[in-house]
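Input (structure):
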């Protein structure tokens, strides 16, 4: 077992400057992930929405057996659960499947049905934000697949950042990647991809809060469509 270093803002800033200087997007991502594995050992985990296996593929190359946290909200599309199982069966990762304290049925009894339509922030808080916070309490650093080109709210994403809210280092290995970079890697390495993308979805979330997007539309426009909500609170 690797002895984990303490996470500090200075450590994150130094790593961000060092790995941001690497021009090749794949080499940049792998270098940042290797560093995270060497620095934090088994106190480092990545998260995945199971939209695809890209980050899990990269992370498992850099850190075989890497912990991959999936927030199993109880509201996922069957295709997303299938993609989770596909990724887990073909990549050398350790799945950390995280569920909310209440099942969807229990939540319906406590708060009434379709809380996601009436108060999506509360629903996300109970089914995503708190379960992730409790899970990440067992780690020193975490990684996500957030990219700058996904939305204006993500345009300033750093490669290695300080997550002040959680007091952790946060690694965003593909922060600088473009959609073309993603497509090229997925094709070259035959990375599992959620079949919902073939059905017009641009970004994959819980079924009640995700719709397909029109050609040319912002890929995240299908998330919480019709409301002002744009993020579930995991990355903000
Ligand atoms: S995305 Fe929708 S269904 Fe999923 S936790 Fe948030 S509000 Fe609930």
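Output (sequence):
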């Amino acid at each position: 077992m690797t002895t984990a270093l303490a996470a500090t803002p200075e450590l994150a800033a130094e790593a961000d400057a060092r790995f941001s200087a690497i021009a090749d997007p794949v080499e940049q991502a792998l270098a940042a992930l290797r560093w995270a594995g060497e620095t934090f050992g088994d106190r480092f985990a990545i998260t995945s929405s199971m939209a695809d296996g890209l980050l899990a593929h990269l992370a498992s190359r850099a850190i075989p057996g890497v912990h991959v946290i999936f927030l199993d909200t109880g509201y996922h599309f069957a295709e997303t659960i299938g993609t989770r199982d596909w990724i887990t069966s073909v990549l050398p990762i350790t799945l950390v499947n995280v569920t909310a304290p209440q099942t969807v049925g229990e939540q319906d009894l406590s708060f009434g049905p379709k809380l996601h339509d009436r108060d999506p922030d509360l629903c996300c808080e109970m089914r995503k934000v708190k379960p992730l916070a409790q899970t990440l309490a067992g780690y020193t650093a975490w990684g996500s697949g957030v990219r700058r080109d996904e939305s204006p709210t993500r345009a300033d994403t750093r490669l290695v950042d300080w997550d002040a809210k959680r007091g952790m280092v946060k690694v965003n290995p593909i922060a600088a990647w473009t959609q073309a970079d993603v497509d090229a890697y997925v094709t070259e390495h035959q990375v599992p991809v959620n079949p919902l993308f073939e059905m017009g979805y641009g970004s994959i979330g819980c079924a009640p809060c995700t719709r397909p997007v029109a050609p040319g539309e912002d890929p995240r426009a299908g998330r919480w469509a019709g409301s002002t909500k744009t993020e579930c609170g995991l990355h903000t």
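Notes: The mean pLDDT is 93. The longest helix spans residues 120-136.
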